[in-house]
Amino acid sequence: MVEGWLKRGRAALAIAAFLALITVIANLSRMPYVLFPELGALGWVICSNPRHPWARSPALLLLTPFLAAVQGLWITRHLAYGLPAVLLDVGLTLLVIAALRSPIVPALSAGLLPLALEIRTWAYPFSILIGIGALALFLVLRRHWSREPAPSLPAAETAATPPRSGLPPLRAWALPFGGFLVGALLLVEWIGSPLVLFPPLLVIAFEMIVHRQHCPWRGRYGGVLVAINGAALVGLALVKTLGVVPAAAFLAVLATLALLRLLRLPFPPALGLALLPFVIPQPPLTYPLFTLVGSLWLLLVVALQEALAGGGGGSAGSGGEAAAPSVGATGAGGAIGTA
């Protein structure tokens, strides 16, 4: 137990230091999107769990978010934010994921970020390549230095591990995922901020709706709600008090991981919530309220999906804690390990 705690502690410090270094690069280069918010989740999973599908293909790790960022930027430069633009953006990113047979779901966030923040510079996709490229290089070096092959997954963990490539049949998830998107966009129009459909929410929704049989936080709806909004508060508070500086990024990562450990919740997408304020120009104080609205809508959709499917993943009303896989499961973010 002590050895496992030390390993997780070293991994937490390593990814926090990595994000601090990326913040230095973003500030010196004046390319803020080098600090791509999903670097937190990707880095944590890759650093902590070499067996995870995200950690097994440096080429897909590099290519999938880049292509998603390119098409997202193109859409932003030609269409105003709204239902057609967002549906086209998400649809094209899913086509990229399907065509590449890629497991890199955070590419959804790379595609939506330009629309949500009105990013129009062609530096954006190449900015993302810097941080993602560092992670891909780490994977290549780790593979080169390791003398032992990556261990196979125990049978008990296989059910909680996301598919290594491709998408499930469209008929199994298109209706609930599409309903979530349309409802979220109606909330965006009603409230007046695209941050209601904040980019990491797409990744969370994809895992909970599309990969629901493999989602490691399935049924942990109360914990997910606390983690999403707690991470949003942490990131906003640090940016408002310290600014976009390496120390703030370092603390945001450590505080979010501490929250996840306290909740005993394998939920790395929370890191994206903590880091998103670092790339929002003048992040509004209402940011946590927007994340609350978006996350509540997602959990309502997921609860309805589970109810219609026979309650296989727990229910929001009951908390569904018993239905969740063990905290050590290696799902889309199950690299956190047991608490």
Fraction of residues in β-strands: under 5%
- Tally the structural domains: 1
Outline the low-pLDDT stretches.
148-161, 311-339
Distance between the termini: 9 Å
- Let me know the number of strands: 0
Can you summarize the main beta sheet?
Answer: none
Please tell me what the overall shape is: globular
The whole-number mean of residue pLDDT values reads: 85
- By DSSP (H or I, 4+ residues per run), the number of helices equals 13
What is the ordering of alpha helices and beta strands? HHHHHHHHHHHHH
Q: Rg to the nearest angstrom?
A: 18 Å
Structural class: mainly alpha
Helix content: 55-70%
Question: How would you describe this structure to a colleague?
Answer:
The protein is mainly α. It has one domain. Helices cover 63% and strands 0% of the residues. Helix 8 packs antiparallel against helix 9. The longest helix is centred in the N-terminal third of the chain and has 28 residues.
Write the layout of secondary structure elements.
Blueprint: H1 2-29, H2 39-48, H3 58-78, H4 83-100, H5 107-117, H6 123-145, H7 155-158, H8 174-191, H9 199-210, H10 221-242, H11 246-263, H12 270-275, H13 287-308
Short characterization:
The chain is mostly helical. Helices cover 63% and strands 0% of the residues.
Features:
339 residues, single chain, 63% helix, mainly alpha, globular
